[in-house]
């Protein structure tokens, strides 16, 4: 059973904004705001745990600052994992969009470009060691190298795979056929 408590968030000349805060389960806290006022400040302080769900915001959002000046204004470091380090055969499509796939193995591996759900994206493959890196395809046609059945990335080379359609790719970079 949910436990609620109503609190006054802010009082303005236009309206009185109120919110309900509480929890439904041991680890599920929430804040639900009800206001006729068009702007409100919501500050979340979290010690441990995770904030999840969705928030609809019609103004600027700040992380690490109180007065954001852009739609998303972050002070501090944003962490992303754009590099996928692999040591075995793998198949990629839109699950690698915008990523760098790095191989640093002396063993030969095959990276397969597969049929994708979307188009208009790319990923880059970098070979960092002596192991052959072969680019194969499954369900896609290589537009600029359709007659080449095996593409081997040069050692310390980079190859980019661009999806022009869900089943068509252009491959370019440092490779031998």
Protein traits:
single chain, mainly beta, five-stranded mixed sheet, 16 strands, disordered N terminus
Question: How do the helices and strands line up, and which of them pair or pack?
Answer:
Blueprint: E1 3-11, E2 16-25, E3 28-34, E4 61-63, E5 72-74, E6 83-86, E7 90-92, E8 100-103, E9 109-114, E10 121-127, E11 133-138, E12 141-142, E13 151-153, E14 158-165, E15 168-173, E16 175-176
Parallel strand pairs: 4-5, 6-8, 7-9, 8-10, 9-11, 12-15
Antiparallel strand pairs: 1-2, 2-3, 10-14, 11-13, 13-16, 14-15
Describe this protein's structure.
The chain has 177 residues and is an all-beta fold. The protein folds into two domains: 3-74, no CATH class; 83-176, Sandwich (Jelly Rolls). Helices cover 0% and strands 47% of the residues. The strands form four sheets. Strands 6-8-10-14-15-12 form a six-stranded mixed β-sheet, with no helix packed on it. A five-stranded mixed β-sheet has the order 7-9-11-13-16, with no helix packed on it. The protein has a three-stranded antiparallel β-sheet with strand order 1-2-3, with no helix packed on it. Mean pLDDT is 75; it is low at 1-17.
């Amino acid at each position: 059973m949910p436990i609620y408590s109503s609190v006054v968030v802010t009082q303005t000349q236009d309206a009185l904004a109120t919110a309900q805060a509480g929890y439904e389960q041991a680890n599920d806290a929430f804040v639900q705001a009800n206001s006729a006022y068009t702007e409100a400040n919501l500050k979340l302080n979290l010690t441990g745990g995770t904030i999840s769900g969705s928030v609809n915001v019609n103004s600027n959002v700040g992380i690490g600052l109180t007065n954001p000046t852009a739609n998303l204004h972050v002070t501090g470091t944003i962490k992303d994992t754009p590099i996928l380090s692999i040591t075995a055969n793998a198949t990629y499509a839109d699950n690698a969009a915008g990523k760098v796939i790095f191989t640093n193995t002396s063993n030969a591996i095959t990276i397969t470009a597969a049929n994708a759900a979307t188009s208009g994206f790319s990923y880059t493959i970098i070979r960092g060691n002596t192991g052959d890196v072969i680019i194969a395809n499954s369900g896609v046609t290589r537009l600029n190298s359709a007659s080449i059945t095996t593409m081997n990335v040069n050692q310390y080379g980079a190859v980019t795979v661009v999806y022009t359609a869900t089943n068509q790719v252009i491959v370019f970079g440092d490779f031998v056929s």
